[in-house]
Design a protein that fits this description.
Helix content: 40-55%
Distance between the termini: 34 Å
CATH topology of one domain: Rossmann fold
Oligomer: single chain
Radius of gyration: 19 Å
Number of strands: 13
Structural class: alpha/beta
Largest sheet: 7 strands, parallel
CATH architecture of one domain: 3-Layer(aba) Sandwich
CATH superfamily of one domain: NAD(P)-binding Rossmann-like Domain
Strand order of the largest sheet: 3-2-1-4-5-6-11
Number of helices: 11
CATH class of one domain: Alpha Beta
Amino acid sequence: MASKSCLVTGGAGFIGSHVAERLLREGHRVRVVDNLSTGDERNIALLGGEVEFVRGDLRDSETCRRVCRGVELVFHLAALPSVPRSMADPWASHDHNVNATVQLLLAARDAGVRRLVYSSSSSVYGDTPVLPKVETLEPLPRSPYAAAKLAGEQYVLAWARAGMVEGVALRYFNVFGPRQDPSSPYSGVISLFISALCEDRRPTIYGDGEQTRDFTYVANVVDGVLRACHAPGASGEIINVATGGRISLKQLFETVKRKVGSQLEPVYSEPRAGDVRDSQADIGKAERLLGYTPSVSFDDGLGRTVAWYRESMVAGRKV
C-alpha cells in the first residue's frame, strides 16, 4: 500500500497504539486523536515524534472536523469499553460509542475521507447459541456496550451504502497482548490474570470458569485492520477478526499459571451481568474478503504477552 494520510482514533489505547505503530512502520503519515480517558500518553511516546497527536474528544464536532482534515483513511478505535461499565452507566456508553461515531462520520464525509474502518465487538452476538459465530447471525446484544457497538456498525454501513464514505465494520474477539492495562477493572481477563500472578495475587474468575472465548493476539487484529482499509470488496461489510478457536477461562488460567510459573489458584465469584457464555468466530469471510489468516497462535501470543509484562515490571513501568 502506497503512503497514505491516516487518522487513528483512540490511538493512545491498547489496540489503537498498535495500529498506529504498524502504520508508521509502513511509512504512512499518522495522526492520532485521543481524549486519554482510557488511553495512555506513554503509548503515544512509544510511537516517537513522527506521529501527530491531538488530545480531543470525538463527541465534539469541531474536534472531528479538525482531525479528519486532509485524511484519506480513518481507523476508528476510540471507545468507552467494557460490558460491566456500560451496565453501570448506559448513557456514557451510548454517548462515547454512538454519538462520537456519528460526529466522526459527518466530519469524514465533509472532509472527503475515502474509507473508515470501524472497530466493533463480538459482544453484539450476545448469547446466540450457534458456534462459531458467523456474520449473518441475528445480533442479540445483552448489554448497553454491545448495543452501542451494534449501533455504530449500522451507522458506518449506512454511510457506505449511501455513498457518503466507504466503511467496514470489524468485529474483534477478546483481543490481548502488550500494553493492555490490567490496573483497570474493565481490562481483559488475560492481562488481569498475568498481572495478578506476577504479583503473587489470586485473580478472580467470574462464574464457573467453563465459559469460552476466542482469544485473539493483537498483531492478528492489526493485520486484519490494515487489510480492511484497502480490500476492494470490503466496503459495506461486517467482518469477524479473530482466530477461530476457543478456550475456557479455566483452561486459560492454567495456561497462564504455567507460563508465569505460579502455584496460586483463582478466586471464584458470581457471574457478571451482561457477559456471554461462549464466543467463537467464523473467520471464513475475513479469509475471502481480506485474505486474512491469523499469523500468531494463541500460545505464541500468550508467551509474548507474559514476557512483556515481566519486562515492564522489571523496568518499573506501572502496568
